[in-house]
Every structure is written in C-alpha cells, then in structure tokens.
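ingest -> fold -> write
write: protein_1
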Amino acid sequence: MSEPIDQPGEFIGRPAASLRGIVIRYRGHCMAGARPARVTLPSASVTLLLGWEQPLTIRSGPAQGVAPASWPAMIAGPQTAPTVAGFDGAGYAVEIDLTPLGAYQLLHLPLHHLARTVIAPDHVMGPGWAAHTTERLTAALSWPRRWQILDALLARRLSAGTLPSPAAVQAWSLLRERGGAVSLRELTRATGLGQRRVQQLLREHIGLPPQTLSRIVRFHRALAVASTGPDSLVDLAGLAGYHDQSHMSRDFRALSGKTPGELLHLMRRRPAGHSGGHIQPFNDFGLPAPPSRPAGFAVPAPAGPTKAPSPPRRSCAPPPSSSGGP
C-alpha cells in the first residue's frame, strides 16, 4: 500500500536496479510545520534536493563562502565541515542521495567543482531542470510514483554520462575497504599510477584529495565501530585506524565540532544508518543546533536563489486529531 502523499513524515525510496551503486536512496519529506535545524556531518557523497512551498535554509556551512541562504532546490557537494540547515514552515522536499562515483556519472562534471559548496541544480542539469522536475513531482499522486519519475530522469542522464576511470574506482574502493587507513603511496602501488595522477583522479571523480577522503572515511568508520563496539575511546581509536586517542579527538572536532564522547553519546541516542557501505550524506544522528541558534528561526536575508517553484496542488496537512470527527 502506498504511503499517503499528504501524511507528514519522512519516506524512503529505493532506486531502480539500474541505478544501484549510483543512487543510495530517495528521501521524501512532507512537513506540516517548521522543522528544527539539524546538523549534517561531512561526507564524500552528493545530495540533490528539490523542494516546494518551503525552501531549505542553510544556517552555517559549507565552508567555502556560502552565506546563510534559502534554497528551494540545490546540489550539495562533498563536505568537510558540519552544516546546519532546516525548514521554516510546511512544505515538501525530495532528496536524492548519490554516491560520489554516481554523482560523477550523473552530473557530467568533475566533482571538485562541487566540493565544500552548494549550487543551484540548473547550473549543472540545464536551465529549467529543477522547475520542470519539481512540477512533475508535485503532480504525482504517491511517493512510489515520485520515485519512478526520478528513476526515469536519472536513467536518461546516466545513459549520456561518462564512465569513471577504472583507476579512480580502484583507489576509492581501496580507501573505503580499508576504512581510510591507506596512504597515497599505497594507492599509487595499487593503481600503477604516479602520486600526482592519483590525486587528480580522486579530486575529479570524488571531489576531494586522498588525504581528506581518508580522514572522512576513517571518521565514519569510527562512528560505525562505536555503534556496536568498545566503550573505551582508546580502544575505539585503535580499531578505527587512528594513531592514538588525541589524533581521533582532533579529527572529530574538525569534522563535527564535537569531542568523540559528545558525538558518540548523541549517536547512541539515535543510531546512524549506513547503506551498503556507502558514506551517507545527512548522517546527522539527531544532533541539535548549537545553543546560540534557536530551533525555530526566521529565514535570513538570502544569498542564493530564492524563487520557489509553483506551490503544490495539495498541502502537507497535520494528522487529524484523535478526538475529532471523521
């Protein structure tokens, strides 16, 4: 049975078989009112967001010059610092979570152009793409139908894309398989290429240099190990591939703004989800916004695109009262 299209909540969709390894998942949001800001941890993945009625407001981050702004649609590239974002009212949004190599094939550009930033989808997908796609999603009568629309649109782009370099695939696979504990010299031996060429390929296909990717992969490995692993931070540092606990603490603070103890406490209250070994975007674990940032906030003066697509034909209404009539 299909999920009610107007029932508030988050709805998860699986991509078609032809998009597995390209699209991690689809996520639909039906919001009856404002949502508190959430903290998104850094990752190497890419997220394409399409919303209508209420834009996403990015409060802080990404690192490279993006001021707080409202985004009815956006592509968020690989990030190296936490991002605080939220919705200020009722509306809908669809997120398309892409693997790095999937984003390289679907977006048809070197991913270092997206690193540490957010851009409007039309800059990559072509003029009018976001409005046209949003209009089709708005008209759909169920979430599964929305996933089918996205499957068809993305499959067409994939067929016109460029296959990734086998050496880039090999280097990225080794980084993930080893939990980030692999040196540039080891990557050159595995691929048979020089160090400079390996660095160029990873920046082009994944968006970030190998040292940064190792740091992010190791960070997420530590979170995954901690979800079922030791209580001792010293033991966790060793199992996750850090030199010692202080090394782990420095990386945790740089990537999340939290100490290992603080972040793991929050993670254990709301466990993370990892999908098929892919580093997930929006891996937020329910982190609250910093105390200086209230959960409900007014939309600041925008520095990015703010014109939203046409409003939907239906509203995302709150659930009916249990004490009311039919």
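write: protein_2
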Amino acid sequence: MLNNIDKGMYLRFCTGVSKLDFYPFAEIKNWKNLGYWLLVLKPYIDKENSADGILENYTFSEAENSLEATVSLKATWQDGTPVSSFEAAMGIAKGFTHREHSTSIRVIGTEDINNIGWEKKSYKGIEIISPIKFKLFFEGKIDNIKGVLEDALSFKTLRNIIWPVRLNSFTNPEYNSGYFDIVSKYPIRFENGKYFLNVLGNQVELSTLNSKNGYDFYFNTSDYNQFKNQNEADLDFIVNKKQNMHTFIGIYNSNSKLFNTKKSRLQLSSILRNIASSLSKDENYHVPKGHFDTSEPGNQANVNWPIQLDFFPEDIRDIKIAIPYLTAKNKVLQKFEELSNKNGISIEWIDMSEDYNKSLDADLQIFIARIQNNRQIWLQNILNSNSVIFNLEKFPKTILTLKEINIKSASTIPIKQDLLENFENSAFEEVSIIPIFRYYLHSYSRKNLPIVLNISENKEFYFSLNKN
C-alpha cells in the first residue's frame, strides 16, 4: 500500500496464482483464475445491473430457441473501440464450442467456426442485424436452453461461463496469452509485466504469488490465512461474508485400487467429516448429514453419512489426493494429513492447476463449488470436467443421475426434486461423492483504505468506496 498524490493509493489484490492469463476458451484447470476474472471482466449479461453488461438488452424466444440482443455502447475494448455485434455474436458462438463437456447447446451451423478463415464465412444460426444488434439460433438436447444460456452469459455458473474476448486475438495459429484485449469493469493497463486496475481513482495491482506477502485485498480465506503478514490480525481487515455457502466435497476415483471397497471409502469419508465437525465451531464450517441440508430439496431421511472418527482402512501406506489449487489444503486437510502421518500413512498432494494429468491418478479428488438459494449449482456443473468423468466411470448409478440432471434440469431453480433424490441415494449407495463440509466465502480488505472488496449475490467481485 502506497500513497500517490496523482493516482490515489497504490494497492495490491491477491490473485492466488503465480501467472496471470485471460485465455477464455480452454477448460479451466486452475480455479483461482476465476477470482480475478470475476473482478476484471464484464459479463455479457449483468443480472444485478443491466447497464453494466456487454449486452444492453436481450430477448429469448423459446419457440425458436433464439437470442436477439443489442450491444451496449458502453462496452469497449482496451483501445476504446466499441464492441461490435459481430464480435459479440461470434464470441458467444465460439465460446460454446469450447465447452465440450458442458451442457450440450450450440449455435446452429457452427461446426466449422474454429477452422481457419472462420471470420469470412456465414453461419446458419448467426444473424448480424446491425453494427450493434444480432440474433443467434441455438440447438441442444436439454429441456432448458434459455436457462443455460443466461447462466453462461451472466457468470452464474462458473464452469460454463462464456468469457468476452476480442476475436482478432485468435486469428493466429497460436494464442499469445501475453497479449490481452478484454471488456473490463475497470480501466486496466499492462505495464512492466504487471496488470493495474484504475478503481475509483486508485491503482490496484493484480498481484501474483511471486510478490511478497501482505496484500491489501484477498478473495478467499485460504489465501488470507497463508499470505497476510504474520503481525496482522483479523481486526486489521474488513471482512465481507457471502450469504450463500460453498460445498467442499470429495470424489473417489473409481479406478483406484486403494479404495475399491465401499467399506474403505466409508472409513475415509467418516474421518474427513469428523475432522470438519471438530473444527466447525472455530472455522465456521457446517457439516450436513448428506449433500442436502434438512430444509433443502433432495434431502433424504434415510441418508446419513457417518461422522465418527473411524480407523483407517488396513494396509494403506500412502494416499494421493488431488486439490484444485495449493491453498485448497485448508485446516481440515491439514488435520487429516497430521492424523494420517500418525498412523503411518503419507499423503501426496497433487495440485490440479499445476499437473492436471497427474491428478487423474489420484485416489481422491477435492471439488469445491457453490450453493445458491437452494440451487445446487455444483450438481449442474460437475460433469463439465474430464477428471470428474474419469473418476466416476465405475460408479454407474452416480454418473447416470448426474447425466439426467445435466439434460433434464440444467439451470432450473431448484433442480427437480426426483433428480436430487436419485443423486443423493446413488452417491450414498456407491460411496462415490462425499459431502465433507460447507463454508461461507469471505473477502478481506485492509482497514482504512479508500475502497473495499465486495462479493455480489452471483459471486462476482467488485470494489466500492469505504464509507467506514
């Protein structure tokens, strides 16, 4: 934190990653990228403030599965050029082709839209009406195309988001991640290898983990605990809590020889849940009896995952656990490692953001996602990852129920009751996906700064003036 008379204060936002990138079309393997993408990028549709979206207004026709939209004149690229209807329409159409494991919807006739010369061709499902107006026609095998489309364009379902990008960046054979051109919420500049946001007159650096500790803003508790200065206390920060909870679950690898019996999987599940329960008071964890709380759709009276401290399965000497990013190794997993070591068991942690292929050999994969007003968004997204599909392939009942949710209830609020019940029963019967605990997402801002980091209902991050 530095004072600058001309540019306000110089502040630092902890991204939690070692390298920044704005490549929007690849499958997301490092979920920490979402933290700064949700802070920096404008969505196509802003549900909370329509004036802030790239699309000023839109209508969806369920009769013809079409989206007609007008691009906001406020939506500009980094050089100030307005976003055109061609760029917006093509960005959406190309974006859906890069979601190969997402709920299956596509713009009609775009099978070759990623081939060389795509920009010179016409497509059956894309109609450019004017420089700021376009229409797209969709097809898919799901019951709720409108809901999936709105989610993808409004940042509601994080694994399916269609990120806005200037498509002339992709006309070359190789995308250069060092070059970026995006539609940002705040003016952004790239200088001396660093990104800076101009936020209400202050300069906020998107700081990587190559920087020293002691940032001004954190968007999750793990980074806050790990990277704040040792002499700093909670009283030194303004803490904002998001009302909707996140779920922290474990997905067993059905191909693992280590946990090839239901008994061994239940034993490990019980140990993890017991540790979370023992920490629940101090860490604000919540350990429901199943994947759904008592008041939530899908709750089953006959499903009650064990929570007592159990013995480790016999003859186990090492366990491979894949985590989405390094700081996902929270206090529950740290305590689990301590207990494992006391029992002569070593834990190999595989950082999926650094070695995705190696994570496919893990015995257990940790998965973190959100719950929103009884809407189990994670269930609608969980099959969008190669690693999850691979892990579940020998849990036929679980993967079948997830596919049914993906097709019949994608983006519905809430998910259909019978589908939720089928999933809960299948996961419990096969001991395939463990509900370990739930927690609240927090953002942290150092006190006495001119701006504060906030979390919206849809998990977007934004700054506001500090009125305290």
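write: annotation protein_2
The first helix runs from residue 33 to 40.
The longest strand covers residues 237-252.
pipeline exit 0
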